[in-house]
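Need a sequence for this fold. Nothing fancy.
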């Protein structure tokens, strides 16, 4: 794999760390600013909304400059947002810093996906995407636990300064390792938007929202689920999160490898297994060993779907991929937000902390149904194209008209 993918993975590591580390530092941040824990939770909500909004806007802006320069500019924005969070005198300023940092998230992964896919041969594209997203998954195993530990011992502001330094390191890596890339061929916004008239693009994004969202019905409420339902001590939750993160890393790499060989079968397997493991977790919580096995499996099967879903969008929008690729990254975060909301609804309704898993299983099963529908439509389209081509070949050519005949 090209070294340029390492630079993209470093950027992904920083983004993944800043996205999830606030969950571990909410009490410290809330106490410092004198706000409640639910109010501090807006730091996560604001970040997610910033990703959804920023992805299409900055992707369109990015279509006017070279992709390498745009990636460097996005990481610069990421650094600025994290520095602003670190020095924030009041909660509102920190929230603004979170939103500034989040604006870079969707466009970085969207444009980065195009760059990563362009660095390798066509049959290795999903593997290259997986390599970039490995930075995001490793962040959950290393970056988030370490960031939480540093924040709890040295102060949460130190954590955000360190994350900003990671962003600087990523900028330098992109500058040194990503090869010079010409400005993408100018495409009008209408041309980028035309990709969304393709039913296959819309189906792929719907699969992203439902399939990946299913994972977050579990992960959002993992701590109360493990302590109240499964009986783990609060100190054990950290190790369960590490196991979950390791599952994400393995699943992401396996998904990238096999999506290059058989994309749709990989989606069928990962989404089916995700639905099954999510449905099993409420039963597994009666046994700690079973729980410790199922939790990382959910992370593995959930992230095994990420490279094929992103590659599916790129394959369907080859002529104008920038906006669609970035919007699909926003779709991952939209799925996260919807999953957390639905999970909260069933808990508030009195069904218990394990109930969100059933919601997640239904979401994953719905994504599987959309995958089957997408493949069926693709076969029909290909069949009609074959019939038209065959008819054209079989039709007799009219004889030329000659003078005097």
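Here you go.
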């Amino acid at each position: 794999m090209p070294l340029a993918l390492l630079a993209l993975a470093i950027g992904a590591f920083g983004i993944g760390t800043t996205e999830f580390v606030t969950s571990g530092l909410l009490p410290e941040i809330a106490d410092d600013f004198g706000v409640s824990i639910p109010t501090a939770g807006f730091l996560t909500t604001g970040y997610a909304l910033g990703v959804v909004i920023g992805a299409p806007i900055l992707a369109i802006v990015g279509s006017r400059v070279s992709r390498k320069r745009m990636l460097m500019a996005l990481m610069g924005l990421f650094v600025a947002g994290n520095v602003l969070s670190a020095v924030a005198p009041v909660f509102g300023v920190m929230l603004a810093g979170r939103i500034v940092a989040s604006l870079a998230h969707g466009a970085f992964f969207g444009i980065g996906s195009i760059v990563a896919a362009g660095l390798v041969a066509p049959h290795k594209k999903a593997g290259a995407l997986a390599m970039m997203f490995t930075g995001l998954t490793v962040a959950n195993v290393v970056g988030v636990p370490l960031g939480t530990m540093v924040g709890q011992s040295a102060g949460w502001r130190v954590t955000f300064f360190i994350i900003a330094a990671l962003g600087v390191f990523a900028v330098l890596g992109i500058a040194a390792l990503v090869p010079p890339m010409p400005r993408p061929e100018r495409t009008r916004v209408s041309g980028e938007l035309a990709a969304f008239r393709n039913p296959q693009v819309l189906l792929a994004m719907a699969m992203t929202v439902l399939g990946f969202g299913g994972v977050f019905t579990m992960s959002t409420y993992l701590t109360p689920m493990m302590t109240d339902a499964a009986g783990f001590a609060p100190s054990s939750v950290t190790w369960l999160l590490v196991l979950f993160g390791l599952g994400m890393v393995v699943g992401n790499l396996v998904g990238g490898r096999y999506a290059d060989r058989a994309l749709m079968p990989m989606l069928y397997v990962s989404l089916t297994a995700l639905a099954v493991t999510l449905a099993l977790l409420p039963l597994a919580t009666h046994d700690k060993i079973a729980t410790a096995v199922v939790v990382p499996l959910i992370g593995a099967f959930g992230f095994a779907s990420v490279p094929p879903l992103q590659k599916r969008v790129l394959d369907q929008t080859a002529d104008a991929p920038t906006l669609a690729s970035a919007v699909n990254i926003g779709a991952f975060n939209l799925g996260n937000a919807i999953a957390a909301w639905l999970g909260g609804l069933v808990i508030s309704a009195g069904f218990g902390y394990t109930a969100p898993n059933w919601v997640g299983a239904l979401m994953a099963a719905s994504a599987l149904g959309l995958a089957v529908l997408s493949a069926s439509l693709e076969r029909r389209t290909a069949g009609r194209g074959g019939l038209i081509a065959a008819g054209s070949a079989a039709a007799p050519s009219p004889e030329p008209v000659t003078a005097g005949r």
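For context: Residues 397-405 have pLDDT under 50 and may be disordered.
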